[in-house]
Amino acid sequence: MIQKSDLVIIVDDDFRVRESISDMLASRHLSSVAFGSAAEYLRFGNSDVPSCLVLDLSLPDIDGLELQTAMAPTQHPPIVFISGHGDIPSSVRAMKAGAIDFLTKPVDEGLLLQAINVALTRDREARHNRNELAKLQERYASLTPREREVLPLVVGGLLNKQAAAELGISEVTLQIHRSRVMQKMKARSIADLVRMTERLSIAPSGLDYTKP
């Protein structure tokens, strides 16, 4: 569902299109900003709230598809393309590159709102995931070097005795490190800790039975 804190960014060189979409969004109490070129939008930069980019295919300074390609390596709002021409190759290229939708002008308000809703929901989820990952990375950074050695052994399913032997420490010391890892990572269970290490791309460690 679209929320009042969301922002719709409109990039179209036709003032009438920008005004029409802005008025339509305002009638539904939705915030928007509009630009007449890619350069203007790029100077604006990314917003701090869930956003959607309604992007015209043909712009005076850069093709909309070229802008999409240029932004691909960066974190940018999900894109809803609009175009005055039913260009199938362009629509296919845009969708393959991750666009939410490709709509032909004059744009149907219902379809545009639906696409904007999908885009904002996706951006909201992406922002939440990035925030959660940042928190996990911060927790992991708080671990000591020894605790970082203990972590993959714990999620690898080793018993305390086995993990202690792997590290050459006592079982009691291993238990202390294990407890601190759970506390610092704010893990409620081993299963919770496993999910965290998966998000952090930390591979679990187990005993190597091929060793002599």
Can you put this structure into words, describing what you see?
This protein is α/β, with parallel strands linked by helices and 212 residues long. The protein has 2 domains: 7-128, 3-Layer(aba) Sandwich (Rossmann fold); 142-199, Arc Repressor Mutant, subunit A. The chain is built from 9 helices and 5 strands; from the N terminus they run βαβαβαβαβααααα. It has helices spanning 15-26, 38-44, 64-71, 88-96, 109-141, 145-155, 160-167, 171-185, 190-199; strands at 7-11, 31-35, 51-56, 79-83, 101-104. It has a 5-stranded parallel β-sheet with strand order 2-1-3-4-5, with helices on both faces. Helix 6 crosses helix 8 (171-185) and helix 7 (160-167) packs across helix 8 (171-185). The longest helix is centred in the middle third of the chain and has 33 residues, at 109-141. It is elongated, with a radius of gyration of 25 Å. It starts with 6 loop residues before the first strand and ends in a 13-residue tail after the last helix. 28% of the residues are buried. Mean pLDDT is 92; it is low at 207-212.
